Amino acid sequence: MNSELTSRLTTACELAREAGQWTLRYFQRDDLQVDLKSDASPVTIADREAEQLLRNRIAAAFPHDGVLGEEFGEQPGTSGYRWILDPIDGTKSFIHGVPLYAALIGIELEGESRAGVIHIPPLGEMAYGAMGQGAWFVRGSGEPRQIRVSTKKKLADGLFLTSDPANFTQRSAWPVYERMCAAAKLSRTWGDAYGYLLVATGRAEVMVDPLMNLWDAAALLPILQEAGGTYTDWQGNATIAGGEGIATNGLVLKEALMLMQGKG
User: How far apart are the C-alpha atoms of 146 and 207, rounded to whole Å?
Assistant: First the structure.
């Protein structure tokens, strides 16, 4: 077991909770100001302050680690470790007072995704994991429990999730969305990181996003793999850098990939 990675994962869980508590100061406030970034995506003071808090804490605890965040770019390091931060994954949900946004922290070692934390501040739910150390779930101040993906073997019995159907249109992939909806027993837009948490904890079978940034994906792969599932690009490659994502319980991966490629 990598004790250095374990130490960082423990810290990441603590920091995700702290950043999450910070964002709750602004959650469901009528006077929340929303700005637009250069790509027209929304950002708030909560996003910026929470990321700065995370950066300060990481610099104090692990001064030689690199950091990449959605709001403030990259700070190179020399240790081989890099933290990848998304202080509010699901900013649109956050802005609208929907309690399904997340604080995401991913940790790389020598360019390989090694650990991750998904924290849903309004619900008090957290999933976390590190390669070789299992995946775990905790709600509030309860005891952590090891998690496993579901055992359903076909989409006809399963739940398909995505963040926003419009993203399929933006990518000219609307038929993929239609095929996935038709194949699944149930389809919902319980999206962003919350959807991936549902797959990791066995409450959904597949989550698909046509458009993903590195900070959206970095925390997901270790958790899903350690829970017995998969996180891949649309070709089935296990990567956080594909610009797209699909998470499954592993048992429906082949079926989902065939549907996405129009072969189902």
Answer: 21
- Alpha-carbon distance of 73 to 156, in angstroms, equals 42
- Burial (Cβ within 10 Å: 0-12, 13-18, ≥19) of residue 64: exposed
Residue 219 has which token pair?
């925390």
pLDDT at 1 over 80: no
The residue with tokens 């508590």 is 21
CB 115 within 8 A of CB 107: yes
Spatial CB neighbours of 247, under 8 Å, sequence gap ≥ 6: 195, 196, 199, 200, 206, 207, 208, 220, 224, 229, 230, 231
Residue corresponding to tokens 């072969």: 263
Element (H, E) at 79: none
CA distance 196 to 212: 13
What is the enclosing helix (H) or strand (E) of 233? Answer: none
Exposed, middle or buried: residue 153 (CB in 10 Å: 0-12, 13-18, 19+)? middle
Give the three-class secondary structure for 125. Answer: strand
Alpha carbons 149 and 12: distance in angstroms, whole number: 23
Q: What is the pLDDT of residues 205-248, one digit of tens each?
A: 999 999 999 999 999 999 999 999 999 999 999 999 999 999 99
The per-residue b/e assignment along 84-120, b for 16 or more CB within 10 angstroms, e otherwise, is bbbbbbbbbbbbeebbbbbbbbbbbbeeebbbbbbbb
User: How many residues belong to the chain?
Assistant: 264
- Nearest of 177, 170, 159 to residue 243 by alpha carbon: 170
Count of H-run helices and E-run strands, the chain: 9, 15
